[in-house]
Write a structure and sequence with these properties.
The protein is mainly beta. It has two helices and nine strands. It is about 10% helix and about 40% strand. About 15% of the residues are buried.
């Protein structure tokens, strides 16, 4: 977990602090599948700007996740370039929407912030390629490697009483 101590900053309104950080990314679990960040630690640019009523945080980094394709289960890679911002009000009684969930006890949790930003930037489906055909619903073979169709229509024996009813009507 990577954190940044905000206690050492002494900024006046309008001043800015810039730093390069190495942020540890945590694995994500999406749809019951585990996606691993590669590399686990990424370089990130952190900018903190002191506003009149609080601080504006900006984090810029590139994250890459490796895991299974959601259609065919082969390896898939998702890479995103992210620039995210958060605001933290100075007033302890400010509305919750004006306080960042990543700031606690004078520490900015860079790992949690980067993980959440990366998770929000993921596509609806993580695929090995945009035209992934997936797995055959009949036999389970990978349709990308072995495109095929099943000509034989199998009837589930449990449906046979309904089939008999349809023939009588």
């Amino acid at each position: 977990m990577t954190t940044f101590s905000l206690r050492r900053l002494r900024l006046r309104s309008g001043e800015e602090y810039r730093d390069e950080q190495e942020v540890a990314l945590e694995p994500l679990e999406i749809g019951g599948q585990r996606y691993l960040p590669v590399p686990e630690r990424v370089g990130a640019s952190l900018t903190i700007t002191q506003a009149t009523t609080g601080r504006v945080f900006e984090l810029v980094f590139r994250g890459r996740l490796h895991g299974p394709c959601q259609r065919c289960l082969t390896d898939a890679v998702v890479e995103r370039e992210l620039a995210v911002q958060e605001y933290q009000a100075e007033d302890a009684h400010a509305d919750e929407e004006l306080r960042s969930p990543y700031v606690r006890d004078g520490l900015l949790d860079l790992s949690a912030w980067a993980r959440d930003a990366l998770a929000l930037a993921l596509p609806d489906q993580i695929l090995c390629r945009p035209d992934c055909a997936g797995l055959c619903p009949m036999c389970g073979r990978d349709l990308n490697r072995e495109p095929h169709e099943h000509t034989e229509e199998r009837v589930d024996p449990r449906w046979s009483p309904l089939e008999e009813l349809r023939e009588k009507l």
